[in-house]
Write a structure and sequence with these properties.
four-stranded mixed sheet; 286 residues; 47% helix; alpha/beta
Amino acid sequence: MKLDGRRESSNVEDRRGLSGGGKAGLGIGGIIIVGIITLLMGGDLGDVLNTVATDGGFTTQQNYEPTAENEALAKFSRQILASTEDVWTKVFKEQRLGTYQAPTLVLYTGSTSTACGQGQSAMGPFYCSADEKLYIDLSFFSSMRRQLGADGDFSYAYVIAHEVGHHVQHLLGTLDQAHQQMARMSKADANRMSVRIELQADFYAGVWGHYENEFFGSLEDGDLEEAINCASVIGDDYLQKKSQGYAVEESFTHGTAAQRMKWLKKGLSTGDVRKGNTFELSDSQL
């Protein structure tokens, strides 16, 4: 991606080198699978973490010194967040969705307290609708590259844009409605609802990419392939087979590799928010 000279968002809270003092347990409820799946099942935490009280304090991690790579990724993340602000502000206005209110990006290391409970880097990037913040431990990108071969700046940007996609769902009321329905469902049905939430966030990430390139002409040869490859290797079926040798469809919470690629590409090609209603389709249509 061509980002030279692009602005950096000020809606960033840098907690790197700090550790949250919260006492919350993870309370993941079985949605996140151990090992590599645990690392990569980043999504909205509102439906998987128990909301608990934390003391809200932070302590400095001794001898913490960000690497040059980490600093470069922090700048990149601020630039991508700024891009999502520019794109979604215009999209909301032009497609008559209301006024876009930007989320806050929290950069942290290890663990941190959130309004959704205690966040851990092992969860991967996640969005908390209770405080309208997205949380990223930048070491996730290195793990993504080493363990899955998902590399490149646009694949990293897709990860951030996906979490911002959850914020868009929150602003439009979709996320809260889905979570309310999930609370009354069986685990299997709640998983199917979760897949629809995640695929729509992939679609919104594609919508962002569509207008990012239209507004700024930032995409270069290979960028789209990077993001599509990333979407494929974080599909539930791919991750489960890589981790345990087989896939259990009833446990899918984010969608298959084919589904995630499909909805990302649909957003990239159309740029039309109205074409991303994953909730009105049958399982076979996803």
